[in-house]
Amino acid sequence: MDSAESAGTGADLLVATALANGIDHCFANPGTTELHLVQALDRAPGMRSVLCAFEGVCSGAADAFARITGRPALGLYHLGPGFANALANVHNARRHHTPMINVIGDQASWHLAADAPLTSDIGSLSEWTGRLIEVTSPDGAGPAMAEAIRGALGDEQRISNLVVPADHAWGSTTGVPPIVERPLRRRPDADMVAVATAALARPGGTLVLDGPAIGAAALRLAEAIRLATGCTVTSGRPARQELGSDVPAIDQLPYFPQPLQLALAGVSTAVLVGAEEPVTFFGYPDTPSYPLPTEAGRIALGGPGDDLEMLLAAIATELGVEPSEGPGRTPAPLPEVDPGPLSPRNLGQAFACAIPEGAIVVSEAISSGGGYRALAPSAAPHTLLAVTGGAIGGGLPAAVGAAVAAPDRSVLALQADGSALYTIQSLWTMARERLDVTVVICANRRYQILDVELAAAGIELAGSELTALDDPPVDFAGVAAGFGVPGVAVTTGAELVRALDRAAAEPGPHLIEAVLAG
Ligand SMILES: Cc1ncc(C[n+]2csc(CCOP(=O)(O)OP(=O)(O)O)c2C)c(N)n1
Ligand SMILES: [Mg+2]
């Protein structure tokens, strides 16, 4: 792009810089301070803007878009209050190292002193999620966006919060969009690889995989390493993972602290590939934060910014083995779906059977996901996006982002009911964009996991019902219809199978409320 073409507003330069660096989607909820950004997004050829009816949908969708494409998406937010609404899902993205650029409009620079109602401390909101970058002139909009992209493509802090005062967005510039060089991938340290390989070959060696993505090639390398050394292989909570009948299955480390401690009890050395040392999700009385045995060795091979496949390939080369072919086992056939009243078990059966090859599954099923997860290795090959940062309300937005990122793939969302309500407006964007998403709401009408935690803590409630969602029960099928998504409620396995079939046969979004027997 030459300077004549790039003449326009600071906002035009900012958007042109994004486009020149391959960033061509924006999940947006704008306001008056973003008018020129809206204009720039609208008139830039090749830029697709997706309107979300709540900022937490924008951020969750941008996160999933980046996880599927490997490219950052933009989010567009209205000053501090708009960005504050986005933060829980920005937190989730930060926890799994998603590249993300949040463009946050601000008051015109000279209007800040007037302390108008929406004036807010965007800097302090930015600090806990990412790097704060401020546009200080229309000419500076290009370099500032380039800096944000450099951060997103880097190793450490991949979230950039780009604050754009309205006057710098509307001011004119002849600036040219800078092109950001991609960083080179770090080579694994040969000595560390040798030490890690030797540790894996000893009894009690275990490989823990985690990070932004566990792809098919990484799984096949891990399987070859397992066969060659006899080590165990587990995963943390990767942001994206390949699953299904054509890849080796690995166990995920359990959520609750006692099973987690048990799963790691016999470990002599944990080789953490792209993974931090496992920790319990919360602190519990008389329970250690770090479930690995104290005496176990810990070897960190690469961080979340490193390429898992490259690290595992280095171990495989050290062992002189090739990646295993296919799943390295014969997956058990999927069972018949129990047609009776719905439980997490037959819900999981019906769901696993309904996954078409190449689908993206988004799971925020919380207490109802076990049935699907147990059968996932036998299901058709698919990509799983999990919600990893612990902030609930990421599932439905992630389904939006995944469907926008991969219009030729089906998206199935297995979604707990309580979590669904945080960002239920996602349904409206699914309808507006005609996204091919099937949402299965696991309607146990409770915050069930909190009931389990209460019981484990020995707490009996006197009747405050702070974990009950059944009075009134949410009519999810009706809510979906209100957002323009066809919805149906089912109560048995047989009905769920029929509803999933119908959803697969028709284009566009569908919602199935799977009412679990109490
Ligand atoms: C943003 C945020 N708010 C609150 C919580 C606390 N929390 C964790 S699980 C949960 C309830 C989950 O209920 P539901 O989604 O229905 O899942 P279920 O256990 O019933 O399957 C809550 C409120 C959280 N993790 N994140
Ligand atoms: Mg629930």
Summarize the structure.
With 518 residues, this protein is of the alpha/beta class. It has helices at residues 3-6, 10-20, 35-43, 55-69, 79-95, 122-127, 141-153, 166-170, 190-201, 216-229, 257-263, 308-319, 344-354, 370-375, 395-405, 417-420, 426-432, 448-456, 476-482, 493-505, and strands spanning 8-9, 25-28, 48-51, 73-78, 100-106, 131-134, 159-165, 172-173, 205-209, 232-235, 240-243, 251-252, 269-273, 297-301, 359-364, 382-386, 411-416, 437-443, 487-490, 510-515.
Blueprint of the fold:
Elements: H1 3-6, E1 8-9, H2 10-20, E2 25-28, H3 35-43, E3 48-51, H4 55-69, E4 73-78, H5 79-95, E5 100-106, H6 122-127, E6 131-134, H7 141-153, E7 159-165, H8 166-170, E8 172-173, H9 190-201, E9 205-209, H10 216-229, E10 232-235, E11 240-243, E12 251-252, H11 257-263, E13 269-273, E14 297-301, H12 308-319, H13 344-354, E15 359-364, H14 370-375, E16 382-386, H15 395-405, E17 411-416, H16 417-420, H17 426-432, E18 437-443, H18 448-456, H19 476-482, E19 487-490, H20 493-505, E20 510-515
Parallel strand pairs: 2-3, 2-4, 4-5, 5-7, 6-7, 9-10, 9-13, 10-12, 13-14, 15-16, 15-17, 17-18, 18-20, 19-20
Antiparallel strand pairs: 1-8, 11-16
This protein binds thiamine diphosphate and magnesium ion.
